[in-house]
Amino acid sequence: MPTVISFVSTKGGVGKTTLAANLAGILADYGMRVLAIDADIQPSLSKFYPLLEQASCGLNAVITRGGSVHADSISRTIIDNLDLIYSDAPDGSLQNWLRDREDRLMIMRRAMAAPLIQPYNVVVIDTQGAVGELQKTAAMAADYMISPIKPDTLSAGEFSSGTLGMLDDLNRLADFGEKFRSGDLYALINAQERNNNARVLATVVRQKFAGHRKVRVLDTVVPSAAAYAAAATAQRPVHRYDRRPSFANSAWHVMHQLVWELFPSLKDIYVDDVIADDDPTFAPSAAEEGLA
Prior knowledge:
Elements: E1 3-7, H1 16-29, E2 34-39, E3 51-53, H2 59-64, E4 75-77, E5 82-85, H3 93-99, H4 107-112, E6 122-127, H5 133-141, E7 144-149, H6 153-170, E8 184-192, H7 196-208, E9 215-223, H8 226-234, H9 238-241, H10 251-262, H11 271-274, H12 286-291
Parallel strand pairs: 1-6, 1-7, 2-5, 2-6, 7-8, 8-9
Antiparallel strand pairs: 3-4, 4-5
Helix pairs in contact: 1-10
């Protein structure tokens, strides 16, 4: 089965979609088969990369079929190896539909066991920035969850009360078996400014959760940088957009550090080592060339 990573937070605006899209993009460039699932009622991930082939259905069909995944719900993006199940219920109808289902927490996990999902190496799920049934079912499907935290008082406070509260709520039935247990939660310090206050708050976050049974603060720190917004506007993975191998804080290096931390078997392997490419500027995929 693929490794399933859900991006979760009960606070909006912390960078879940940007990180989810860029992680999916760099893993695809490693040659992995990646499926991105947009489980946010605001379909930002669905619009992050242009589609080469758009499926007739999206997440609405997957959920309302009880977690059954058909070919009519999987779209192809212009990024080689990266497919998408897009969000198509912006009115919140899926939240209401799930709320009335006794098996609501297991539906996304059931989808991850579908035959069409098995060929993927990684599934990346983006969720809304609030507590909701879609977010909960995505969390229960995950091998682990990533929760971005901006090093400011509001974001850190919401993580402690809201996101961890949701985690505790999800695991109330864990004593009945592993199928009722969520994956572990990884906190990722995101958009860290270059000032002392941000560094102090980041240190406080690390100290607070040192040794926590269900929370691990990742070593990778994503800095506040214009490249992430610019790459999103250009609809390109940020490691392709900000490719400065000699600059330790470039998006190229940061995204590789994140991959190495999440997938230790890839440690010290760069996408250049996987993709035979003589162009030092990292040429776009064939699909990107066609849309240029």
